[in-house]
């Protein structure tokens, strides 16, 4: 399965990474080199094999559904590139 | 007088207990060594004031009767660990200036044990790489050079700063993380000891995530004993990481005997394919050392070995594309400036284009592709099935052997820039280490010799799940026989 520049444009958007038009073709070549190499996996017979979901045979622990932390607004906003009046800011999303 | 930064952890512990030195003195010597080693670019943040305050607190604790193993021992911390109030950005531009208000569980355990933080160590961006060249701080340079050559050599990666700092005696030990070989390959490249423990042995909480089903924390040290001491302090159950194992942590140091009588060690025949003569000879030498320690050495087969790398380069990017979705320019780190009328999607796309380096961008896009509608079964599901087969290979091998001896790397360290421009060639660096992450097993890299070019070479021991104590013991048997005393000639 080889990917073209249209697919790269689509994948870039899925990944939310802006890619300039002149970067599409070189990027397609790079991604194709990697995908062409991983293609060899298709030759493995996986009949009756379950996909791995957990590498160690452990049941995930559960905990009581209670609040264990909170009231840390200043900590949470401290690293924001643009926080105002106790909120994160983003460009206008609703007209 | 020799700098106290050259001490092993075990020797420093003895001297501190005997009152022959203080944490303050050892810490000052480490800070002095770091100040002179700017050319290596191993430390990217130095927390000198914090280090001296922690050293004084450790000396005070000792005066009050405490004598914990790591009390007063200065360490370096890979930049991927969140450290409260200290810049932590996984060597990425997208996390510029990120200063966590919290401490990772592993580092918190080290500080509780009395260790002293010297600062943060260089790495590949988001731990994606094998040479520490993709760092936003610029490449880390190995203290090692080829004989008669002044070309810059890579310390390996992604934990290259940790490896270089320990090899150059800037600290007594360091933390790393290993997703596909990022502790074991740099350890082998720099003549240091590095262990990736069993998946779940150390908490991943507060470690900036790359591929969560593969990431594990582990130490770099100058000796096997030091690595055992460090891992003992780093490991343990953490309610904040649901994949951390609720198992008692054995006393790894107490288990060090170096006696392998009655043990069987396997050599996977698939690892011989295409192996160079130098590494092949090193491997045979290591097998002879294990026999000398009393072990029986037998050939084993891990038939799906050749599929480990391609499976990894689907699974790890898939997990990375999900983990790295959080970098949106809103909550922390870099935020792109927008033109008039730019919307929220423009903000995400521009921020991420500016913030991620080329290798991170490649992996996030590969991940998005293999998870996208229509390709999920062909790529991601197939890779997870192959991962099950790789694990099964190990399960079957461990029915007849106690541990596995294998090369750590296909060659000695390469020069800076030599692997640029061909991502797949760089990926092949991890051919001997990546299977261990996919199967969740413990693996240690031990220095064993020096290449014809004058660079260190290491071998890898792989154990059964939760079998770190046995892995350390076999590693000690190698260390005792290898008598690896080479050190880099100081040029920096």
Average pLDDT metric of chain B: 97
- Taken from the alpha-carbon principal axes, the silhouette of chain A is flat
Cα-atom Rg of chain A, whole angstroms?
A: 23 Å
How large a portion of the residues of chain B is in β-strands, by DSSP E?
Answer: 5-15%
How would you sum up the global shape of chain B?
globular
Order of helices and strands of chain A: HHHEE
On the 0 to 100 scale, the average pLDDT of chain A is 92
Oligomer: heterodimer
Helix/strand order of chain B, N-terminal first: HHEHEHEHEHEEHEHEHHHHEHHEEH
Count of runs of 4 or more consecutive helical residues of chain A:
3
* Strands of chain B, total number: 11
List segments of chain A where confidence is low: pLDDT < 50 over at least 5 consecutive residues: none
In total, the number of strands of chain A is 2
Order of strands, widest sheet of chain A: 1-2
If helices are DSSP runs of H or I spanning 4 or more residues, what is the number of helices of chain B? 15
Strand content of chain A: under 5%
Name the structural class of chain A: mainly alpha
Cα end-to-end separation of chain A:
41 Å
Content-based structural category of chain B:
alpha/beta
Spatial strand sequence of the major β-sheet of chain B: 1-3-2-4-6-5-10-11-9-7-8
């Amino acid at each position: 399965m080889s990917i073209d520049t249209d697919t790269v444009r689509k994948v870039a958007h899925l990944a939310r990474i802006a890619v300039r038009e002149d970067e599409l073709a070189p990027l397609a070549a790079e991604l194709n080199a990697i995908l062409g190499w991983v293609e060899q996996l298709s030759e493995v017979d996986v009949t009756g094999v379950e996909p791995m979901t957990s590498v160690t045979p452990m049941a995930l622990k559960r905990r009581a559904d209670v609040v264990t932390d909170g009231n840390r607004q200043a900590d949470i906003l401290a690293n924001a590139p643009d926080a105002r009046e106790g909120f994160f800011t983003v460009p206008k999303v609703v007209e | 007088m020799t700098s106290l930064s050259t001490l092993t952890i075990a020797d420093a512990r003895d001297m501190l207990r005997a009152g022959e030195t203080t944490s303050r003195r050892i810490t000052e010597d480490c800070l002095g060594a770091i100040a002179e080693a700017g050319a290596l670019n191993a430390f990217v943040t130095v927390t000198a004031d914090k280090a001296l305050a922690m050293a004084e607190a450790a000396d005070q604790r000792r005066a009050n009767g405490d004598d914990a193993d790591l009390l007063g021992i200065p360490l370096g911390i890979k930049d991927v660990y969140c450290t409260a109030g200290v810049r932590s950005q996984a060597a990425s531009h997208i996390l510029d200036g990120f200063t966590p208000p919290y401490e990772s569980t592993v580092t918190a355990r080290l500080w509780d044990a009395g260790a002293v933080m010297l600062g943060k160590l260089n790495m590949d961006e988001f731990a994606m790489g094998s040479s520490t060249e993709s760092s936003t701080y610029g490449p880390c340079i190995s203290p090692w050079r080829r004989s008669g050559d002044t070309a810059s050599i890579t310390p390996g990666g992604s934990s290259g700063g940790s490896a270089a700092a320990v090899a150059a005696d800037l600290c007594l030990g360091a933390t790393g993380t290993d997703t596909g070989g990022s502790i074991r390959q740099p350890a082998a490249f720099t003549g240091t000891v590095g262990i990736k423990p069993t998946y779940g042995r150390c908490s991943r909480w507060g470690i900036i995530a790359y591929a969560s089903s593969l990431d594990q924390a582990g130490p770099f040290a100058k000796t096997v004993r030091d690595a055992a001491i460090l891992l003992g302090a780093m490991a343990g159950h953490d309610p904040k990481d649901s994949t951390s194992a609720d198992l008692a942590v054995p006393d790894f140091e107490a288990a060090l005997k170096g006696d392998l009588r009655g043990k069987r060690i396997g050599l996977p025949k698939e690892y011989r394919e295409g192996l160079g003569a130098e590494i092949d000879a090193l491997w045979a030498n290591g097998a002879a050392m294990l026999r000398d320690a009393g072990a029986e050495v037998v050939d084993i087969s891990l038939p799906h070995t050749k599929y480990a790398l391609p499976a990894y380069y689907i699974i790890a990017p898939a997990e990375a594309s999900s983990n790295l979705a959080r970098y949106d320019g809103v909550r922390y780190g870099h935020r792109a400036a927008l033109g008039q009328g730019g919307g929220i999607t423009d903000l995400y796309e521009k921020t991420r284009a500016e913030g991620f380096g080329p290798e991170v961008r490649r992996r996030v896009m590969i991940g998005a592709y293999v998870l996208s509608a229509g390709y999920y079964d062909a790529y991601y599901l197939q890779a997870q099935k192959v991962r099950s087969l790789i694990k099964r290979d190990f399960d079957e091998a461990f029915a007849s052997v106690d541990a596995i001896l294998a090369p750590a790397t296909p060659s000695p360290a390469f020069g800076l820039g030599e692997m640029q421009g061909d991502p797949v060639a760089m990926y092949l660096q991890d051919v001997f280490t990546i299977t261990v992450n996919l199967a969740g097993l413990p693996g240690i890299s031990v220095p064993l010799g020096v290449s014809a070019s004058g660079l260190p070479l290491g071998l890898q021991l792989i154990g059964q799940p939760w079998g770190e104590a046995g892995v350390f013991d076999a590693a000690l048997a190698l260390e005792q026989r290898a008598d690896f005393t080479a050190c880099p000639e100081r040029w920096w």
